[in-house]
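RECORD TYPE: protein structure
NAME: F-box domain-containing protein
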Amino acid sequence: MLSIKPVLLDFCPEILHNILANLKPADVGSISRTCRGLNSYVEGNRLLWKDLYIRNFDHPPHEHIQREPQWEVDLKRFVNLQKILETENVSVKKSAVVETCNTAIHLLQTASADSESSLNISFLNQFFEDRHNGNVFLFSSNLYEQAGAEDHHPASTEEERQATAKLHSYFGTSKEAIGRTRSRAAHPYARAKVYDLRGYTTPNYWGPWMDDGSLRVDWEKVESLMIVLGYNLQMFGERCPIPASKSLMIWHSPFEGVTPNSYTPMPRFMDTMDKNLKAELNFLHGTSIIQEPEPPLEALDPYGVTGTWRRVVCFLDYNDLYSFNFGGYEPNDSRPRPPIIMQEAIRLITMKLRVERIEAPGPMNGKALPVVHFTGTARSMHQAHDPNSNSSLYGTASLTPEGEVRWTTTSLFGGEERWKSESIQVGGLRSARGTIGTWFDKDYDDNGPVGPTAFWKLNDQVSDEKRTGVVLYAGYDDDDDDDD
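PREDICTED:
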């Protein structure tokens, strides 16, 4: 009998390329296993795998690429992720927790900065509508030893628990986390973790870091901070149904704003003003009202510090905090504290920051980027004379040794330091999601107070402050956040 060659191999390479490039990546892998000829054509075909990649996923941002991506390796990794997320076998999912979470994070870190048009985020969202994926890959930290539904259980290893908490922190809050769909909502247990003073130590800098002095992120702590802040902002938005409250729901859309460089400034009146009106106003005022370009110092800042930021600070009544931590407990009692159902106070603050100086990274900084020092002001949005919300501040933006973006702030009242904060920018450099962290007493008082805080950038303007040079501290009157 005459042997019959596979029909596909009769086509010229260009046509064969176009046929295969229009298939789903998983199907191309299957086709390559049908015969030696197709396997030889597919395996190692850089142009084919690149074409498949950019047809199905976001092209990695240029600033993320130090060398050409491994198109074939990465795409096969994504196909494996898809198979794990698609399977109904929970045991298979649980056997690949770390790999799945890490691959999902990689997709987010290389996603388009525009969440709405991102192929990577769309790819992930379709699978995390499945509750089984949520149970295994989002709700498997130690928090769910007590919180959650009956099918929520902590993963078996610390590495797995940290991986799921990180992915949950990128995913954001949800009806599950804030208690819309079950009796054992996560937020009371997360609140207990956030306000447990035993979790604030010198080795973790009183921030969202591991207790070993390494400045590695403790994602389980970040997860709890996010849930508490998300719940409080949700409650605030429901009680204050004003248009501005919608901008506070920064954790409520899955994976939104967690890609590097996803920050885009909000439009301002000056940006949308008719050019003829601008010219008329300039003539009437005898000077240009258009702000001059920022000086070179801002241009050298990789973190995008200069601008207007929204900040949220939450705190318990101090008597409640003290009773929760010391009422009826032995000093060495290591048992988890009970869930906190009492409500917290919330403060919304507008911060205006400017770069003061930039210096080389130190011993405890990542070496890829400099340390940026900034100064600024913070002012309460709703209580103009709040003595704990209106202040001046200074701080730093830098990289940790593992490459995460760390923010520190110190608030001053009457020229005296009062509050400090430690935060991580979720999503990396210039992410729209902004930072999540903790605020605490400037003396690191073992008796508190402490609480959760977050801030995210609104725009690049600080136009209501008079520029006096690169050191903006002298140009501010009283505008910083309260419980940094």
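COMMENT: The chain has a mean pLDDT of 86.
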